[in-house]
């Protein structure tokens, strides 16, 4: 049996990298004062239909939807924003005196996509959402957090692109312009785009099939349709980014694949060599109508998400080694029953002091046990042989220097603690 297509097992050797990266992301979130939220992995299908948008690829083609035994239509979450907003409304977090509500999450998401490098059917997203502020400074904060997350891990080949999708009025005039622009080519567009033309013409701009149609390049850009207020907002976000020394480029074609966006939209790409077709590391933007669409009071929001899979891919492409501890503090070698009884007693004491210890559980010979200690890269080997047992002593070998001492068992824990601290 194999793991389903588009999923992967993370085995020891790799999970340490995930732990390191996830810990770093949590640390940065804490520095920015974002608090963790954990929502269910499945939700009512309707949440994503209403939240992400009925005409998006995600909802139309990529959802893992099933009917449970109680006849409810449920869906494995394809993204985190809709769930976070649902939870924000359900628990009336908008009523909390400290606003905006700044949340982060890390967890698996599911999309039925064609798997390739950097595109999985189950992937883990880290994301943040800031709800309750329409200050352009928070747009810059969210973008800054995303950039810092990558930079703090050593990534350099990063490109930030931003755009504005404008407010409702700007979007409506842009929508009309898109309809006028694409209508003459209707018959040349794919079936999906033909229906998008009436339902949601903005979606045509990120169609994978019609990407090369000549009408794509000449399509009216949203930036030309921004009203004064939207334009002012966008300029303000850029000023904040400049003030924070975050380089960016404006890409008027950036529309994002989810329906809830307005005003700021952004993506961070990697331009490291060797990246395949997929270079987008993360994406996000503002979604001022979403809370209301999901039954809450009018509340502005902005956020972004990245997958850990793509982050790790970027680290690999830039040859960045994470500082992961690969050795063991102590390995205890004992031969004979009495010796082993003393060994387990000592191991327990050492572990209680936070020292990392292991022993042989395969009844190997002394020499073979030394080999295991070597393979595990143990800093110290503690030997309890016949003589040691008789004298109530333990022999400690420093595997780096080869130095060896024999000391009383009572002093062992302190000795090891000091030796490790002194390193
Ligand atoms: P998204 O652009 O659909 O936005 O996904 C965000 C990120 O999730 C992508 O940039 C990528 O890193 C990762 N990702 C998406 N699909 C896959 C996949 N199949 N395999 C691996 N990684 C993937 C959202 O999901 C929005 N909820 C982001 C957001 C938060 N906007 C506002 N708040």
Notes on the structure:
The protein is built from 15 helices and 16 strands. It is an alpha+beta fold and about 425 residues long. It has two domains: about 15-165 and about 225-315, Bira Bifunctional Protein, Domain 2 (BirA Bifunctional Protein, domain 2); about 330-420, Anticodon-binding domain (Rossmann fold, 3-Layer(aba) Sandwich). The mean pLDDT is about 95. The protein binds histidyl-adenosine monophosphate (HAM). Histidyl-adenosine monophosphate (HAM) binds near residues 81, 280 and 309.
Topology:
Layout: H1 15-31, E1 35-36, E2 42-44, H2 45-51, H3 57-61, E3 64-67, E4 73-76, H4 81-90, E5 101-110, E6 122-131, H5 136-152, E7 158-164, H6 168-182, H7 191-199, H8 214-217, H9 228-243, E8 249-250, E9 262-270, E10 280-286, H10 290-293, E11 301-307, H11 308-317, E12 328-334, H12 337-352, E13 357-359, H13 366-375, E14 378-384, H14 386-391, E15 393-398, E16 404-408, H15 409-421
Parallel strand pairs: 1-5, 7-8, 12-13, 12-14
Antiparallel strand pairs: 2-4, 3-4, 5-6, 6-11, 7-9, 9-10, 10-11, 14-15, 15-16
Helix pairs in contact: 1-5, 5-9
The structure holds histidyl-adenosine monophosphate.
The total strand number stands at: 16
Any idea how many domains? 2
Taken as a percent bin, the fraction of beta residues is 15-25%
Return residue spans where pLDDT drops below 50 for at least 5 consecutive residues: none
Shape: elongated
Mean pLDDT: 95
For the record, the CATH class of the largest domain is Alpha Beta
* CATH topology grouping of the largest domain: BirA Bifunctional Protein, domain 2
Helix count, DSSP H or I runs of 4 or more residues: 15
Structural classification: alpha+beta
Bound molecules: histidyl-adenosine monophosphate
The CATH homology group name of the largest domain: Bira Bifunctional Protein, Domain 2
Please report the distance between the alpha carbons of the first and last residues: 46 Å
């Amino acid at each position: 049996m194999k793991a389903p297509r588009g999923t992967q097992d993370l085995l020891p050797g790799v999970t340490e990298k995930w732990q390191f990266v996830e810990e770093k992301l949590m640390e940065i979130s804490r520095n920015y004062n974002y608090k963790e939220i954990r929502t269910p992995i499945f939700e009512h299908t309707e949440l994503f239909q209403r939240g992400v948008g009925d005409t998006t690829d995600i909802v139309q083609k990529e959802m893992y939807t099933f009917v449970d035994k109680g006849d409810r239509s449920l869906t494995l979450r394809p993204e985190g924003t809709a769930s976070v907003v649902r939870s924000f409304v359900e628990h009336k977090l908008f009523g909390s005196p400290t606003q905006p509500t700044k949340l982060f999450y890390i967890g698996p998401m599911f999309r039925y996509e064609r798997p390739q490098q950097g595109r999985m059917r189950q992937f883990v997203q880290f994301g943040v959402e800031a709800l309750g502020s329409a200050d352009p400074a928070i747009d810059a904060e969210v973008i800054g957090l995303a950039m810092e997350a990558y930079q703090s891990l050593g990534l350099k080949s990063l490109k930030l692109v931003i755009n504005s999708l404008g407010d409702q009025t700007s979007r409506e005039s842009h929508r009309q312009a898109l309809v006028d622009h694409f209508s003459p080519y209707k018959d040349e567009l794919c079936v999906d785009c033909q229906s998008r033309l009436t339902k949601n013409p903005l979606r045509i701009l990120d169609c994978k099939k019609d990407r090369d149609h000549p009408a794509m390049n000449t399509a009216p850009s949203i930036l030309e349709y921004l009203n004064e207020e939207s334009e002012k907002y966008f300029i303000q976000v850029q000023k904040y980014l400049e003030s924070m020394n975050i380089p960016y480029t404006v890409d008027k074609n950036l529309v994002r694949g989810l329906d809830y966006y307005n005003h700021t939209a952004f993506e961070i790409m990697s331009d490291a060599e060797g990246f395949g077709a997929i270079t987008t590391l993360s994406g996000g933007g503002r979604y001022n109508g979403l809370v209301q669409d999901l039954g809450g009071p009018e509340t502005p929001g902005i956020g972004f998400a990245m997958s850990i899979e793509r982050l790790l891919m970027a680290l690999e492409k830039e040859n960045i080694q994470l500082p992961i501890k690969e050795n063991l503090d102590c390995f205890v070698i004992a031969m004979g029953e009495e010796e082993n009884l003393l060994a387990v007693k000592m191991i327990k004491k050492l572990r209680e002091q936070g020292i990392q210890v292991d022993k042989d559980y395969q009844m190997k010979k002394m020499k073979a046990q030394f080999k295991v200690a070597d393979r595990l890269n143990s800093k110290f080997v503690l030997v309890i042989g016949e003589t040691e047992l008789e004298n109530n002593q333990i022999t400690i070998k420093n595997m780096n220097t080869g130095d060896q001492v024999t000391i009383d068992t009572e002093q062992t824990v302190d000795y090891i603690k000091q030796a490790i601290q002194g390193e």
